[in-house]
Protein backbone atom coordinates (compact mmCIF):
# COMPACT_ATOMS: atom_id res chain seq x y z
CA UNK A 1 0.00 0.00 0.00
CA UNK A 2 1.01 3.61 -0.49
CA UNK A 3 2.45 5.04 2.68
CA UNK A 4 0.23 7.27 4.88
CA UNK A 5 1.28 10.88 4.51
CA UNK A 6 0.59 13.58 7.05
CA UNK A 7 -0.02 16.19 4.36
CA UNK A 8 -2.65 18.84 3.68
CA UNK A 9 -5.63 17.56 1.66
CA UNK A 10 -4.81 19.69 -1.41
CA UNK A 11 -1.03 19.13 -1.37
CA UNK A 12 0.77 17.28 -4.20
CA UNK A 13 1.87 14.63 -1.68
CA UNK A 14 -1.69 13.93 -0.54
CA UNK A 15 -3.00 13.97 -4.10
CA UNK A 16 -0.43 11.40 -5.24
CA UNK A 17 -0.89 9.21 -2.16
CA UNK A 18 -4.67 9.18 -2.56
CA UNK A 19 -4.39 8.30 -6.25
CA UNK A 20 -2.07 5.36 -5.61
CA UNK A 21 -4.26 4.12 -2.76
CA UNK A 22 -7.28 4.13 -5.07
CA UNK A 23 -5.30 2.56 -7.90
CA UNK A 24 -3.92 -0.25 -5.80
CA UNK A 25 -7.31 -0.93 -4.21
CA UNK A 26 -8.84 -1.29 -7.68
CA UNK A 27 -6.03 -3.57 -8.84
CA UNK A 28 -6.26 -5.75 -5.76
CA UNK A 29 -10.00 -6.11 -6.30
CA UNK A 30 -9.33 -6.91 -9.99
CA UNK A 31 -11.72 -4.09 -10.82
CA UNK A 32 -10.34 -3.11 -14.20
CA UNK A 33 -13.11 -0.61 -14.92
CA UNK A 34 -12.49 1.25 -11.66
CA UNK A 35 -8.72 1.29 -12.26
CA UNK A 36 -9.19 2.63 -15.79
CA UNK A 37 -11.51 5.30 -14.42
CA UNK A 38 -8.55 6.73 -12.49
CA UNK A 39 -7.00 7.78 -15.79
CA UNK A 40 -7.89 11.00 -17.58
CA UNK A 41 -10.02 10.88 -20.69
CA UNK A 42 -6.88 11.62 -22.68
CA UNK A 43 -4.13 9.56 -21.09
CA UNK A 44 -1.14 7.35 -21.81
CA UNK A 45 0.40 4.40 -20.02
CA UNK A 46 3.89 3.45 -21.14
CA UNK A 47 5.04 0.07 -19.86
CA UNK A 48 8.61 -1.16 -20.12
CA UNK A 49 8.33 -4.91 -19.48
CA UNK A 50 6.72 -4.74 -16.00
CA UNK A 51 3.13 -5.56 -17.01
CA UNK A 52 3.42 -6.45 -20.68
CA UNK A 53 6.73 -8.31 -21.16
CA UNK A 54 7.02 -5.82 -23.97
CA UNK A 55 7.90 -2.20 -24.68
CA UNK A 56 4.49 -0.74 -25.30
CA UNK A 57 2.19 2.23 -24.79
CA UNK A 58 -1.58 2.12 -24.45
CA UNK A 59 -3.77 5.17 -24.82
CA UNK A 60 -6.77 6.47 -22.93
CA UNK A 61 -9.10 4.48 -20.69
CA UNK A 62 -9.86 1.91 -23.38
CA UNK A 63 -6.16 1.11 -23.72
CA UNK A 64 -5.72 0.87 -19.95
CA UNK A 65 -8.71 -1.47 -19.79
CA UNK A 66 -7.24 -3.68 -22.49
CA UNK A 67 -3.80 -3.84 -20.88
CA UNK A 68 -5.10 -4.62 -17.40
CA UNK A 69 -7.66 -7.14 -18.65
CA UNK A 70 -4.88 -9.07 -20.33
CA UNK A 71 -2.18 -8.81 -17.67
CA UNK A 72 -3.55 -8.01 -14.21
CA UNK A 73 -4.06 -11.52 -12.83
CA UNK A 74 -0.59 -12.80 -13.71
CA UNK A 75 1.19 -9.54 -12.90
CA UNK A 76 -0.44 -9.19 -9.44
CA UNK A 77 0.96 -5.69 -8.83
CA UNK A 78 1.20 -4.36 -5.28
CA UNK A 79 3.13 -2.10 -2.94
CA UNK A 80 2.77 1.15 -4.86
CA UNK A 81 4.78 3.66 -2.83
CA UNK A 82 5.55 7.28 -3.55
CA UNK A 83 9.34 7.40 -3.39
CA UNK A 84 10.08 11.13 -3.59
CA UNK A 85 8.26 14.29 -2.60
CA UNK A 86 5.80 14.95 -5.44
CA UNK A 87 6.00 18.22 -7.35
CA UNK A 88 3.34 20.39 -8.93
CA UNK A 89 3.61 22.80 -11.87
CA UNK A 90 1.07 24.17 -14.33
CA UNK A 91 -1.70 22.05 -12.85
CA UNK A 92 0.24 18.78 -13.17
CA UNK A 93 1.33 16.74 -10.14
CA UNK A 94 4.39 14.60 -10.81
CA UNK A 95 5.25 11.69 -8.52
CA UNK A 96 7.94 9.02 -8.57
CA UNK A 97 6.96 5.62 -7.20
CA UNK A 98 8.03 2.03 -6.69
CA UNK A 99 5.98 -1.17 -6.85
CA UNK A 100 6.24 -4.94 -7.10
CA UNK A 101 4.83 -7.58 -9.41
CA UNK A 102 4.57 -11.32 -8.97
CA UNK A 103 8.05 -11.78 -10.43
CA UNK A 104 9.87 -8.50 -10.09
CA UNK A 105 10.28 -4.99 -8.77
CA UNK A 106 9.57 -1.81 -10.63
CA UNK A 107 9.66 1.93 -10.54
CA UNK A 108 7.88 4.63 -12.45
CA UNK A 109 6.49 8.11 -12.73
CA UNK A 110 2.93 9.41 -12.87
CA UNK A 111 1.60 12.80 -13.93
CA UNK A 112 -1.78 13.66 -12.43
CA UNK A 113 -4.23 16.28 -13.66
CA UNK A 114 -7.58 17.29 -12.26
CA UNK A 115 -10.61 16.09 -14.19
CA UNK A 116 -14.18 16.20 -12.87
CA UNK A 117 -12.79 17.43 -9.56
CA UNK A 118 -10.61 14.34 -9.10
CA UNK A 119 -6.92 13.61 -9.71
CA UNK A 120 -6.55 11.46 -12.84
CA UNK A 121 -3.45 10.00 -14.45
CA UNK A 122 -2.46 11.83 -17.60
CA UNK A 123 0.76 9.84 -18.15
CA UNK A 124 1.96 6.73 -16.34
CA UNK A 125 5.34 5.06 -16.76
CA UNK A 126 5.93 1.61 -15.29
CA UNK A 127 9.30 -0.11 -15.64
CA UNK A 128 10.73 -3.39 -14.41
CA UNK A 129 14.23 -3.03 -13.01
CA UNK A 130 14.75 -6.32 -11.14
CA UNK A 131 13.58 -9.94 -11.14
CA UNK A 132 12.91 -11.53 -7.75
CA UNK A 133 15.48 -14.21 -7.01
CA UNK A 134 17.70 -12.93 -9.81
CA UNK A 135 18.91 -9.65 -8.38
CA UNK A 136 22.17 -8.23 -9.68
CA UNK A 137 25.16 -8.68 -7.32
CA UNK A 138 25.61 -4.99 -6.58
CA UNK A 139 26.04 -2.84 -3.50
CA UNK A 140 25.49 -4.88 -0.37
CA UNK A 141 25.09 -7.98 -2.57
CA UNK A 142 28.37 -7.55 -4.39
CA UNK A 143 30.56 -10.72 -4.63
CA UNK A 144 33.26 -11.34 -2.05
CA UNK A 145 35.97 -11.81 -4.68
CA UNK A 146 38.32 -13.59 -2.34
CA UNK A 147 37.63 -17.15 -1.16
CA UNK A 148 38.79 -17.40 2.44
CA UNK A 149 39.83 -20.66 4.01
CA UNK A 150 41.73 -23.55 2.43
CA UNK A 151 40.73 -25.43 -0.71
CA UNK A 152 42.97 -27.76 -2.73
CA UNK A 153 40.70 -27.32 -5.76
CA UNK A 154 40.85 -23.54 -5.58
CA UNK A 155 40.92 -21.68 -8.88
CA UNK A 156 42.08 -18.12 -9.06
CA UNK A 157 40.02 -15.45 -10.75
CA UNK A 158 42.33 -15.59 -13.77
CA UNK A 159 42.03 -19.39 -13.97
CA UNK A 160 38.24 -19.26 -13.80
CA UNK A 161 38.12 -16.63 -16.52
CA UNK A 162 40.50 -18.64 -18.73
CA UNK A 163 38.46 -21.82 -18.32
CA UNK A 164 35.24 -20.00 -19.09
CA UNK A 165 36.75 -18.48 -22.22
CA UNK A 166 38.09 -21.84 -23.39
CA UNK A 167 34.73 -23.59 -22.94
CA UNK A 168 32.39 -20.91 -24.31
CA UNK A 169 31.21 -21.72 -27.80
CA UNK A 170 32.71 -25.17 -27.69
CA UNK A 171 31.70 -27.34 -24.73
CA UNK A 172 29.37 -24.64 -23.39
CA UNK A 173 26.88 -22.86 -25.60
CA UNK A 174 25.80 -19.27 -24.97
CA UNK A 175 22.14 -18.82 -24.15
CA UNK A 176 22.28 -15.45 -25.93
CA UNK A 177 24.40 -14.60 -28.95
CA UNK A 178 24.80 -10.88 -29.55
CA UNK A 179 25.91 -10.08 -33.10
CA UNK A 180 27.63 -6.71 -33.10
CA UNK A 181 30.21 -5.52 -30.61
CA UNK A 182 29.70 -1.76 -30.75
CA UNK A 183 28.33 0.24 -27.85
CA UNK A 184 24.93 -1.47 -28.10
CA UNK A 185 26.23 -5.02 -28.00
CA UNK A 186 28.74 -4.17 -25.29
CA UNK A 187 26.13 -2.49 -23.07
CA UNK A 188 23.83 -5.50 -23.42
CA UNK A 189 26.73 -7.87 -22.79
CA UNK A 190 27.46 -6.08 -19.52
CA UNK A 191 23.82 -6.32 -18.42
CA UNK A 192 23.63 -10.02 -19.25
CA UNK A 193 26.89 -10.68 -17.42
CA UNK A 194 25.51 -9.08 -14.27
CA UNK A 195 22.32 -11.14 -14.57
CA UNK A 196 24.33 -14.37 -14.93
CA UNK A 197 23.00 -15.09 -18.41
CA UNK A 198 25.49 -17.13 -20.48
CA UNK A 199 26.05 -14.78 -23.39
CA UNK A 200 28.60 -14.07 -26.08
CA UNK A 201 29.18 -10.87 -28.05
CA UNK A 202 30.79 -11.30 -31.48
CA UNK A 203 32.10 -8.72 -33.91
CA UNK A 204 33.97 -8.82 -37.20
CA UNK A 205 36.51 -6.24 -36.03
CA UNK A 206 39.59 -7.44 -34.16
CA UNK A 207 39.21 -5.34 -31.00
CA UNK A 208 36.33 -3.72 -29.15
CA UNK A 209 36.16 -0.12 -30.32
CA UNK A 210 37.51 -0.81 -33.80
CA UNK A 211 34.15 0.26 -35.22
CA UNK A 212 35.06 3.74 -34.01
CA UNK A 213 38.77 3.56 -34.81
CA UNK A 214 38.04 2.72 -38.44
CA UNK A 215 35.90 5.82 -39.09
CA UNK A 216 37.16 9.14 -40.46
CA UNK A 217 39.57 10.76 -38.04
CA UNK A 218 37.55 13.91 -37.29
CA UNK A 219 34.57 11.93 -36.02
CA UNK A 220 33.46 12.67 -32.48
CA UNK A 221 30.26 12.29 -30.53
CA UNK A 222 27.82 15.15 -31.05
CA UNK A 223 25.96 14.23 -27.87
CA UNK A 224 27.44 15.49 -24.58
CA UNK A 225 29.11 13.23 -22.04
CA UNK A 226 26.22 13.30 -19.55
CA UNK A 227 24.00 11.71 -22.21
CA UNK A 228 26.45 8.96 -23.14
CA UNK A 229 27.38 6.95 -20.03
CA UNK A 230 27.46 3.16 -20.30
CA UNK A 231 25.73 0.95 -17.68
CA UNK A 232 27.48 0.53 -14.31
CA UNK A 233 30.61 2.49 -15.24
CA UNK A 234 30.03 6.19 -15.99
CA UNK A 235 32.68 8.32 -17.59
CA UNK A 236 35.00 10.00 -15.06
CA UNK A 237 34.22 13.63 -14.29
CA UNK A 238 37.24 14.85 -16.26
CA UNK A 239 36.02 13.19 -19.48
CA UNK A 240 35.62 15.65 -22.38
CA UNK A 241 32.14 16.96 -23.14
CA UNK A 242 32.31 15.62 -26.71
CA UNK A 243 34.23 12.36 -26.98
CA UNK A 244 36.69 11.93 -29.88
CA UNK A 245 36.16 8.64 -31.69
CA UNK A 246 39.46 7.08 -30.67
CA UNK A 247 38.91 7.95 -27.03
CA UNK A 248 35.50 6.25 -27.19
CA UNK A 249 37.14 3.26 -28.87
CA UNK A 250 39.65 2.87 -26.07
CA UNK A 251 36.91 3.29 -23.47
CA UNK A 252 34.85 0.51 -25.06
CA UNK A 253 37.84 -1.80 -25.13
CA UNK A 254 38.65 -1.18 -21.48
CA UNK A 255 34.96 -1.49 -20.57
CA UNK A 256 34.81 -4.99 -22.08
CA UNK A 257 37.77 -6.03 -19.93
CA UNK A 258 36.61 -4.41 -16.70
CA UNK A 259 33.04 -5.69 -17.02
CA UNK A 260 34.31 -9.17 -18.02
CA UNK A 261 32.10 -9.34 -21.10
CA UNK A 262 32.61 -12.54 -23.13
CA UNK A 263 33.65 -11.03 -26.46
CA UNK A 264 34.97 -12.55 -29.67
CA UNK A 265 36.65 -10.20 -32.08
CA UNK A 266 37.67 -11.12 -35.65
CA UNK A 267 34.48 -13.16 -35.88
CA UNK A 268 32.29 -13.18 -38.96
CA UNK A 269 28.75 -14.52 -38.79
CA UNK A 270 28.15 -16.41 -42.02
CA UNK A 271 24.56 -17.54 -41.60
CA UNK A 272 21.89 -18.31 -39.02
CA UNK A 273 18.73 -20.38 -38.95
CA UNK A 274 16.10 -21.09 -36.31
CA UNK A 275 15.02 -24.61 -35.39
CA UNK A 276 11.42 -24.30 -34.19
CA UNK A 277 11.34 -27.82 -32.75
CA UNK A 278 14.55 -27.41 -30.75
CA UNK A 279 13.83 -23.78 -29.89
CA UNK A 280 17.36 -22.70 -30.78
CA UNK A 281 19.44 -21.05 -33.46
CA UNK A 282 22.19 -22.61 -35.51
CA UNK A 283 24.72 -19.89 -36.20
CA UNK A 284 27.78 -20.52 -38.34
CA UNK A 285 30.73 -18.25 -37.59
CA UNK A 286 34.36 -17.99 -38.58
CA UNK A 287 36.66 -16.82 -35.78
CA UNK A 288 40.25 -16.07 -36.72
CA UNK A 289 39.88 -18.50 -39.62
CA UNK A 290 38.30 -21.27 -37.50
CA UNK A 291 34.79 -22.40 -38.47
CA UNK A 292 32.46 -22.88 -35.50
CA UNK A 293 28.78 -23.55 -35.01
CA UNK A 294 26.99 -21.85 -32.13
CA UNK A 295 23.55 -22.88 -30.84
CA UNK A 296 22.08 -20.05 -28.79
CA UNK A 297 18.45 -19.94 -27.72
CA UNK A 298 18.27 -16.19 -28.33
CA UNK A 299 19.84 -14.16 -31.12
CA UNK A 300 20.27 -10.39 -30.76
CA UNK A 301 21.22 -8.26 -33.75
CA UNK A 302 23.11 -5.29 -32.35
CA UNK A 303 24.56 -4.34 -35.70
CA UNK A 304 23.76 -0.64 -35.47
CA UNK A 305 20.50 1.30 -35.56
CA UNK A 306 21.49 2.74 -38.93
CA UNK A 307 21.53 -0.72 -40.45
CA UNK A 308 23.08 -1.41 -43.81
CA UNK A 309 24.70 1.42 -45.77
CA UNK A 310 22.56 2.77 -48.60
CA UNK A 311 24.98 2.82 -51.50
CA UNK A 312 23.28 4.17 -54.61
CA UNK A 313 23.63 2.27 -57.86
CA UNK A 314 24.18 4.81 -60.62
CA UNK A 315 25.00 4.67 -64.31
CA UNK A 316 28.66 5.39 -64.91
CA UNK A 317 29.99 4.23 -61.57
CA UNK A 318 31.95 1.59 -63.44
CA UNK A 319 33.64 4.13 -65.71
CA UNK A 320 34.41 6.81 -63.10
CA UNK A 321 38.20 6.94 -62.85
CA UNK A 322 38.41 8.46 -59.39
CA UNK A 323 37.71 7.07 -55.96
CA UNK A 324 34.18 6.52 -54.63
CA UNK A 325 32.93 5.14 -51.33
CA UNK A 326 30.10 5.32 -48.81
CA UNK A 327 30.55 7.66 -45.85
CA UNK A 328 30.79 4.65 -43.51
CA UNK A 329 34.00 3.69 -45.34
CA UNK A 330 35.45 7.19 -45.58
CA UNK A 331 39.08 7.02 -44.44
CA UNK A 332 39.45 10.67 -43.52
CA UNK A 333 40.72 13.73 -45.33
CA UNK A 334 44.48 13.29 -45.30
CA UNK A 335 44.95 12.00 -48.86
CA UNK A 336 42.61 14.43 -50.57
CA UNK A 337 44.36 17.78 -50.31
CA UNK A 338 43.97 19.69 -53.60
CA UNK A 339 41.47 17.18 -54.97
CA UNK A 340 37.92 17.85 -56.08
CA UNK A 341 35.57 15.96 -53.77
CA UNK A 342 31.82 15.68 -54.30
CA UNK A 343 29.91 14.68 -51.16
CA UNK A 344 26.41 13.42 -51.95
CA UNK A 345 24.19 14.19 -48.94
CA UNK A 346 23.61 16.95 -46.41
CA UNK A 347 23.18 15.33 -43.02
CA UNK A 348 25.56 14.64 -40.08
CA UNK A 349 28.17 12.54 -41.88
CA UNK A 350 28.11 14.76 -44.96
CA UNK A 351 28.82 17.91 -42.93
CA UNK A 352 31.50 16.25 -40.80
CA UNK A 353 33.28 14.94 -43.88
CA UNK A 354 32.96 18.22 -45.79
CA UNK A 355 34.38 20.14 -42.84
CA UNK A 356 37.39 17.86 -42.42
CA UNK A 357 38.09 17.82 -46.17
CA UNK A 358 38.00 21.62 -46.35
CA UNK A 359 40.38 21.88 -43.41
CA UNK A 360 42.85 19.67 -45.32
CA UNK A 361 42.73 21.71 -48.49
CA UNK A 362 40.27 19.79 -50.63
CA UNK A 363 37.92 21.49 -53.08
CA UNK A 364 34.58 20.34 -51.67
CA UNK A 365 31.09 20.35 -53.14
CA UNK A 366 28.01 19.24 -51.20
CA UNK A 367 25.05 17.85 -53.14
CA UNK A 368 21.86 18.53 -51.19
CA UNK A 369 19.05 16.25 -52.38
CA UNK A 370 16.39 17.18 -49.82
CA UNK A 371 15.96 19.56 -46.91
CA UNK A 372 17.92 19.10 -43.68
CA UNK A 373 17.25 20.11 -40.10
CA UNK A 374 20.23 21.80 -38.46
CA UNK A 375 20.61 22.76 -34.82
CA UNK A 376 23.69 24.34 -33.28
CA UNK A 377 25.41 22.14 -30.72
CA UNK A 378 25.52 24.69 -27.92
CA UNK A 379 21.83 25.52 -28.35
CA UNK A 380 20.90 21.84 -28.30
CA UNK A 381 22.93 21.28 -25.15
CA UNK A 382 21.45 24.24 -23.31
CA UNK A 383 17.83 24.20 -24.47
CA UNK A 384 17.29 20.62 -25.56
CA UNK A 385 19.31 18.60 -23.05
CA UNK A 386 20.30 20.93 -20.22
CA UNK A 387 17.48 20.08 -17.81
CA UNK A 388 18.37 16.37 -17.80
CA UNK A 389 21.87 15.88 -19.20
CA UNK A 390 24.30 18.61 -18.15
CA UNK A 391 26.70 19.55 -15.37
CA UNK A 392 24.01 21.81 -13.96
CA UNK A 393 21.52 18.94 -13.90
CA UNK A 394 24.02 16.74 -12.06
CA UNK A 395 24.69 19.52 -9.54
CA UNK A 396 20.95 19.77 -8.97
CA UNK A 397 20.70 16.09 -8.07
CA UNK A 398 19.74 14.66 -11.45
CA UNK A 399 21.15 11.15 -11.86
CA UNK A 400 21.56 9.40 -15.19
CA UNK A 401 18.88 6.86 -14.26
CA UNK A 402 16.40 9.54 -13.23
CA UNK A 403 17.09 11.51 -16.40
CA UNK A 404 16.52 8.40 -18.54
CA UNK A 405 13.26 7.58 -16.78
CA UNK A 406 12.05 11.18 -16.98
CA UNK A 407 12.59 11.19 -20.72
CA UNK A 408 11.05 7.73 -21.08
CA UNK A 409 7.96 8.87 -19.18
CA UNK A 410 6.83 11.11 -22.05
CA UNK A 411 4.85 8.95 -24.46
CA UNK A 412 5.86 9.26 -28.10
CA UNK A 413 2.33 10.28 -29.07
CA UNK A 414 2.75 13.64 -27.32
CA UNK A 415 6.53 13.98 -27.20
CA UNK A 416 6.57 16.33 -30.18
CA UNK A 417 4.38 18.77 -28.23
CA UNK A 418 7.19 19.14 -25.69
CA UNK A 419 9.85 19.40 -28.39
CA UNK A 420 8.25 22.11 -30.55
CA UNK A 421 8.68 24.99 -28.03
CA UNK A 422 12.32 24.06 -27.47
CA UNK A 423 13.12 24.17 -31.17
CA UNK A 424 11.19 27.40 -31.62
CA UNK A 425 13.45 28.85 -28.93
CA UNK A 426 16.54 27.56 -30.76
CA UNK A 427 15.29 29.03 -34.03
CA UNK A 428 14.90 32.43 -32.42
CA UNK A 429 18.23 32.27 -30.58
CA UNK A 430 20.18 31.40 -33.73
CA UNK A 431 18.13 33.43 -36.24
CA UNK A 432 21.19 35.07 -37.82
CA UNK A 433 22.82 31.67 -38.38
CA UNK A 434 19.74 30.30 -40.14
CA UNK A 435 19.33 33.46 -42.17
CA UNK A 436 22.88 33.12 -43.50
CA UNK A 437 22.32 29.47 -44.40
CA UNK A 438 19.11 30.18 -46.28
CA UNK A 439 20.71 33.09 -48.14
CA UNK A 440 23.38 30.63 -49.26
CA UNK A 441 20.59 28.51 -50.73
CA UNK A 442 20.59 25.75 -48.12
CA UNK A 443 17.23 23.97 -47.77
CA UNK A 444 16.34 24.00 -44.07
CA UNK A 445 13.51 22.28 -42.27
CA UNK A 446 12.42 21.75 -38.67
CA UNK A 447 10.66 18.41 -39.13
CA UNK A 448 7.20 17.94 -40.56
CA UNK A 449 5.59 19.52 -37.50
CA UNK A 450 8.41 21.76 -36.26
CA UNK A 451 9.45 19.30 -33.55
CA UNK A 452 13.08 19.24 -34.52
CA UNK A 453 15.98 16.87 -34.25
CA UNK A 454 15.07 14.19 -31.75
CA UNK A 455 11.68 13.47 -33.30
CA UNK A 456 13.38 13.17 -36.70
CA UNK A 457 15.81 10.73 -35.12
CA UNK A 458 13.03 8.65 -33.57
CA UNK A 459 10.83 8.71 -36.64
CA UNK A 460 13.35 8.12 -39.41
CA UNK A 461 16.90 8.19 -38.03
CA UNK A 462 18.02 10.73 -40.62
CA UNK A 463 17.55 14.22 -42.00
CA UNK A 464 19.51 16.32 -39.49
CA UNK A 465 22.88 17.77 -38.53
CA UNK A 466 24.11 18.87 -35.10
CA UNK A 467 26.30 21.77 -36.16
CA UNK A 468 29.77 21.86 -34.67
CA UNK A 469 31.07 24.35 -37.22
CA UNK A 470 30.84 22.89 -40.71
CA UNK A 471 27.54 24.62 -41.51
CA UNK A 472 29.40 27.94 -41.56
CA UNK A 473 31.49 26.64 -44.45
CA UNK A 474 28.31 26.19 -46.48
CA UNK A 475 26.89 29.53 -45.36
CA UNK A 476 30.17 31.28 -46.30
CA UNK A 477 30.52 29.50 -49.63
CA UNK A 478 33.77 27.78 -48.64
CA UNK A 479 32.02 24.47 -49.36
CA UNK A 480 30.12 24.79 -52.63
CA UNK A 481 26.43 23.89 -52.38
CA UNK A 482 24.40 22.43 -55.24
CA UNK A 483 20.94 20.89 -55.35
CA UNK A 484 19.48 17.93 -57.17
CA UNK A 485 19.65 14.20 -57.63
CA UNK A 486 22.67 12.44 -59.09
CA UNK A 487 21.76 11.17 -62.55
CA UNK A 488 25.01 9.48 -63.55
CA UNK A 489 28.79 9.58 -63.39
CA UNK A 490 31.23 10.12 -66.21
CA UNK A 491 34.94 9.32 -66.18
CA UNK A 492 35.69 12.48 -64.23
CA UNK A 493 32.43 14.08 -63.07
CA UNK A 494 29.16 13.71 -61.22
CA UNK A 495 26.18 14.73 -63.36
CA UNK A 496 22.95 15.91 -61.72
CA UNK A 497 19.46 15.45 -63.06
CA UNK A 498 19.38 19.03 -64.40
CA UNK A 499 22.56 18.41 -66.41
CA UNK A 500 24.94 20.16 -64.01
CA UNK A 501 28.39 18.59 -64.20
CA UNK A 502 30.54 18.52 -61.07
CA UNK A 503 34.18 17.66 -61.80
CA UNK A 504 35.32 15.07 -59.27
CA UNK A 505 38.38 13.14 -58.23
CA UNK A 506 36.52 11.59 -55.30
CA UNK A 507 32.81 10.89 -54.65
CA UNK A 508 31.60 10.27 -51.11
CA UNK A 509 28.09 8.84 -50.82
CA UNK A 510 26.77 10.21 -47.52
CA UNK A 511 23.47 8.61 -48.42
CA UNK A 512 22.43 7.06 -45.13
CA UNK A 513 21.37 3.59 -44.14
CA UNK A 514 18.53 1.14 -44.54
CA UNK A 515 16.45 -0.68 -41.94
CA UNK A 516 18.25 -2.94 -39.48
CA UNK A 517 16.25 -5.86 -40.77
CA UNK A 518 18.54 -5.80 -43.78
CA UNK A 519 21.03 -7.55 -41.53
CA UNK A 520 18.39 -10.19 -40.74
CA UNK A 521 17.91 -10.74 -44.47
CA UNK A 522 21.65 -11.20 -44.98
CA UNK A 523 22.34 -13.41 -41.96
CA UNK A 524 19.12 -15.42 -41.80
CA UNK A 525 16.78 -14.99 -44.79
CA UNK A 526 14.60 -12.46 -46.54
CA UNK A 527 11.62 -14.49 -45.35
CA UNK A 528 12.55 -13.93 -41.71
CA UNK A 529 13.31 -10.26 -42.38
CA UNK A 530 9.86 -9.82 -43.89
CA UNK A 531 8.28 -11.77 -41.04
CA UNK A 532 9.78 -9.23 -38.63
CA UNK A 533 9.18 -6.18 -40.80
CA UNK A 534 10.76 -2.77 -40.68
CA UNK A 535 12.96 -1.89 -37.71
CA UNK A 536 12.84 1.67 -36.28
CA UNK A 537 10.24 4.40 -36.62
CA UNK A 538 7.02 5.16 -34.77
CA UNK A 539 4.42 5.07 -37.53
CA UNK A 540 3.96 8.84 -37.24
CA UNK A 541 2.90 9.18 -40.88
CA UNK A 542 5.57 11.82 -41.38
CA UNK A 543 8.34 11.81 -43.99
CA UNK A 544 10.03 8.39 -44.14
CA UNK A 545 7.99 7.13 -41.16
CA UNK A 546 4.79 5.75 -42.70
CA UNK A 547 1.77 4.91 -40.57
CA UNK A 548 -0.14 3.34 -39.00
CA UNK A 549 0.78 4.64 -35.56
CA UNK A 550 2.66 2.10 -33.45
CA UNK A 551 3.59 4.20 -30.44
CA UNK A 552 7.03 2.67 -29.91
CA UNK A 553 10.17 2.04 -31.91
CA UNK A 554 9.34 -0.78 -34.30
CA UNK A 555 10.92 -4.08 -33.21
CA UNK A 556 13.52 -2.48 -30.94
CA UNK A 557 14.41 -3.99 -27.54
CA UNK A 558 11.32 -6.22 -27.48
CA UNK A 559 9.92 -9.47 -28.88
CA UNK A 560 9.53 -9.69 -32.64
CA UNK A 561 7.38 -11.89 -34.85
CA UNK A 562 10.36 -14.25 -35.17
CA UNK A 563 10.75 -16.33 -32.03
CA UNK A 564 14.13 -15.80 -30.38
CA UNK A 565 15.16 -12.83 -32.56
CA UNK A 566 15.77 -9.39 -31.06
CA UNK A 567 17.12 -6.03 -32.19
CA UNK A 568 19.17 -3.72 -30.00
CA UNK A 569 20.96 -0.46 -30.62
CA UNK A 570 20.45 3.26 -31.01
CA UNK A 571 22.57 6.04 -29.61
CA UNK A 572 24.56 5.62 -26.40
CA UNK A 573 21.65 6.86 -24.30
CA UNK A 574 19.27 4.29 -25.79
CA UNK A 575 21.85 1.52 -25.67
CA UNK A 576 22.37 2.20 -21.97
CA UNK A 577 18.73 2.60 -20.97
CA UNK A 578 16.97 -0.03 -23.05
CA UNK A 579 19.67 -2.68 -22.59
CA UNK A 580 18.23 -3.15 -19.08
CA UNK A 581 14.77 -4.07 -20.34
CA UNK A 582 16.08 -6.33 -23.08
CA UNK A 583 18.39 -8.07 -20.61
CA UNK A 584 15.52 -8.66 -18.17
CA UNK A 585 13.39 -10.18 -20.92
CA UNK A 586 16.22 -12.51 -21.87
CA UNK A 587 16.99 -13.40 -18.24
CA UNK A 588 13.36 -14.27 -17.57
CA UNK A 589 13.35 -16.68 -20.48
CA UNK A 590 16.66 -18.21 -19.43
CA UNK A 591 15.35 -18.64 -15.86
CA UNK A 592 12.10 -20.25 -17.02
CA UNK A 593 9.86 -17.39 -15.88
CA UNK A 594 6.66 -17.27 -17.98
CA UNK A 595 6.74 -14.25 -20.29
CA UNK A 596 3.36 -13.93 -22.05
CA UNK A 597 3.74 -10.93 -24.35
CA UNK A 598 1.01 -8.31 -24.45
CA UNK A 599 0.66 -6.27 -27.63
CA UNK A 600 3.09 -8.02 -29.96
CA UNK A 601 3.30 -5.55 -32.83
CA UNK A 602 1.76 -6.25 -36.21
CA UNK A 603 3.95 -6.01 -39.30
CA UNK A 604 2.88 -3.15 -41.57
CA UNK A 605 6.07 -2.47 -43.51
CA UNK A 606 8.65 -4.98 -44.63
CA UNK A 607 11.65 -2.69 -45.11
UniProtKB/TrEMBL annotation:
Swiss-Prot/TrEMBL keywords: Oxidoreductase
Database matches in Pfam families: Pyr_redox_3
Task: Identify the InterPro entries for this entry.
Answer: Auxin_biosynth/cation_transpt, FAD/NAD-bd_sf, NTF2-like_dom_sf
Drop me one GO molecular function for this one: flavin adenine dinucleotide binding
The record's section on SUPFAM superfamilies has: FAD/NAD(P)-binding domain, NTF2-like
- Name the coiled-coil region(s): none
Give the transmembrane ranges: none
Domain of life, source organism: Bacteria
Put simply, this protein is called Putative flavoprotein involved in K+ transport
> Per the UniProt entry, what species is this protein from, by scientific name?
Geodermatophilus saharensis
Amino acid sequence: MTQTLDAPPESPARRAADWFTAFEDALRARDVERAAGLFATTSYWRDLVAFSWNVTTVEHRAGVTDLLSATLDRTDPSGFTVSEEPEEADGVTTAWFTFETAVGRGKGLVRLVEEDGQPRAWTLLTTLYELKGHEEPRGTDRPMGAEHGVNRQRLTWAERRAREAAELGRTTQPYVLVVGGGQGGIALGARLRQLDVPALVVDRHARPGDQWRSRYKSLCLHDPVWYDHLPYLPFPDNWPVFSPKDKIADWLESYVKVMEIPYWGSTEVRRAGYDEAAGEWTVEVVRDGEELTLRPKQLVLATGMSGKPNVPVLPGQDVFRGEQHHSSAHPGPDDYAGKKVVVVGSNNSAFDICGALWEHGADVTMVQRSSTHIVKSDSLMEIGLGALYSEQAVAGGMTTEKADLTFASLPYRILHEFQIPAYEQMKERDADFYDRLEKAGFWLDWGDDGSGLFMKYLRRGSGYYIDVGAADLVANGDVELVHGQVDHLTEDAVVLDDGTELPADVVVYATGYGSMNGWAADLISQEVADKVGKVWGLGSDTTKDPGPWEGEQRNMWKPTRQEGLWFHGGNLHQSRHYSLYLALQLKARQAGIPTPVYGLAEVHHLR
